[in-house]
Amino acid sequence: MTDDIAARLRALQAADLPVHGGRTLAYVYDSGLAEVDEVARRAVASFAGSNGLDPTAFPSLLTMENDLVAAAARLLDAPDTVVGSVTSGGTESVLLAVQGARDAHLATHPDVRPAMVLPDTAHAAFHKAAHYFGVEAVLVPTSADFRADLDATARALDELGERVALVVGSAPSYAHGVVDPITDLAALAAERGIRCHVDACIGGWVLPYAARVGREVPPWTFAVEGVTSISVDLHKYAYAPKGTSVLLHRTAALRRPQFFASAAWPGYTMLNSTMQSTRSGGPLAGAWAAVQSIGDTGYELLTREVFEAVDAIVAGTTDIPGLHVVAPPDSTLIALATDDSCDPFTVCDEMAARGWYVQPQLSHGAHPATIHLSVSAATRPHVPDLLTALAEATRAAQDAGPVAVDAGVAAYVGALDPTTLTDDDFDGLLAAAGLVGDTPGDDGGLALPTRMAEVNALLDLASPALREAVLVSFLDRLQRPTGWPA
Questions:
Q1: Fewer C-beta neighbours within 10 Å, C or N terminus of the chain?
Q2: Claim to verify: residue 348 and residue 279 sit in the same structural domain
Q3: InterPro entries from the entry (predicted)?
Q4: Domain-embedded: residue 119
Q5: Where are the strands (E) in 302-411, listed by range?
Q6: Within 10 Å of residue 446's Cβ, how many Cβ atoms?
Q7: pLDDT digits (tens, 9 = 90+) for 243-286
């Protein structure tokens, strides 16, 4: 790499959130182990050009994949019959779990549109799978503790009857960090001969170690009868480079619909175990290197550290007026809410001003907006600073008062129809939200403000369908060609 290109890359990266240091509490997961990160980065570079398309051409990748699947199976109390695949991330794992259930269902019910039953807290990846694969996502409400409502789930299963291809539970749910009642959900599914998938993309590599170090963890692994598949991300609490996830099935027969083969063209016979054909060996090698480097003892230590951080944050927020924990977390995710003295969006802005990134979560149904924290082991040494920043940010938000959207703008948003959103409507929203720069350029004049509270408050007024339409339009404007360096 030339010095000039390296300098350009550093300049581009300067505006990104930091991926190390424990101060970014969303999107990244930091072990704080610089030597592990270095080993994993070298592995990624060494295998970046290898191609997982054909395991006979690159047997090293097959060996590493089987090693990682075996490690995950051992961790998740899997029987000897379990099989698995390494995917590009949690979303691909979820997509494949839904696709496999759909195809198995269609094989026996060819004239019935399949459905899946999931809590309204299930990850949006399941909605993406429903959209892609023509499966109806039937949402059931959660109880006051944000866990799947078993009575509502049973009613939905009985009403849908033979249409149900899959029941879903989370370990934990992303928004609130709690584990669904997997034992009961799996039993409901098993009684009816339905697959049950546990989305443990977040908790899959940390909850088993939490149990080992003596924390109380609700049952959710393959030790639960009726659980047929589990997804667990390695680039989260296995602290591997992005992006790798593992999808495990209790038996090979359950995985079989996931495979794709085609000889219907004059080239090589395509054979894929995942959604991708060509797959760089880099992420796989990086994950293998990270898991090998850290080992069981290392993961137990990291798990102690991350839960010490979680406990300290939960305890510390009780001393911050105006802020409270929404639900006692089962895992490493914390949702915080504000009282009427301030709003979570301004708190997020104030945290960013103090060098911390915490994620705003918009309101959903009857539940108000919250602040999301994905805690990593690397955050543990900085918890006192984090709590100080939270207290200061909350006081600053209280001094400013809850963010308000202009009444005229609110009325404009309320009148918009997401199904007929035009470019002119979107331009009006951009202007109202302050997202249009003074000097339009190749990006159409889009400009993100340094503070996002008013933008988030505006989005919070919109219906979910309108939020989706607005953000799709925004992404479309962002992703436009710019001038390539000469």
A1: C
A2: no
A3: GrpII_AminoAcid_Decarb, PyrdxlP-dep_de-COase, PyrdxlP-dep_Trfase, PyrdxlP-dep_Trfase_major, PyrdxlP-dep_Trfase_small
A4: yes
A5: 323-325, 333-338, 359-361, 370-374
A6: 15
A7: 999 999 999 999 999 999 999 999 999 999 999 999 999 999 99
